[in-house]
Amino acid sequence: MKKILSLALLTFAVICLLAPVAVFAIEEAAPAAAKAADSGSGKGIAALAAGIAIGIAALGTGIGQGMGLKGATEGIARNPGASGKITTTLIIGLAMIESLAIYALLVALGILINQKMFF
Asked: For residue 23, with 0-12 CB atoms within 10 Å meaning exposed, 13-18 middle and 19 or more buried, which class applies?
């Protein structure tokens, strides 16, 4: 069961990573006249790619933060005297994990801005 799940997740991740490539390939392949007539050809795919990217990032960071909090809670339960050091390390680690979600948000916004979805 684990092999099937990991293979499905790997396939999904590869599709998500290749979606922006498909958007840029559509734009490069379209002639200039067709581009002027249909300016929104890749916007739907770009929006989908941005949404999937930020969704996967939120899922991954949520799992990472949950695992970190679980470990810190177990560590404090085993040794209450070390709670100060564990809490400090936990907060720093959670900030690092959250920065990954912010980077994914910036990438998603970059995809959308490149497709001129805000203008």
From this structure: buried
The Cα 53–Cα 59 span in angstroms is 10
Q: Is the separation of the CB atoms in 93 and 66 below 8 Å?
A: no
What value, to the nearest 5°, has the Cα angle with vertex 37 and ends 34 and 39? 90
- Global pTM value: 0.59
DSSP class per residue in 15-26: HHHHHHHHHHHH
Which amino acid is residue 82, in one-letter code? A
Q: Where are the domains of the chain?
A: 2-30+40-114
Determine contact, residues 26/59, Cβ cutoff 8 Å. Answer: no
* Per-residue pLDDT tens over the stretch 29-88: 555 545 555 555 667 788 888 888 888 888 989 999 999 999 999 999 999 999 999 999
Question: CA 19 to CA 106: how far, in whole Å?
Answer: 17
Architecture of domain 2-30+40-114 in this structure = Up-down Bundle (1.20)
Measured between its terminal Cα atoms, the distance across the chain in Å is 46
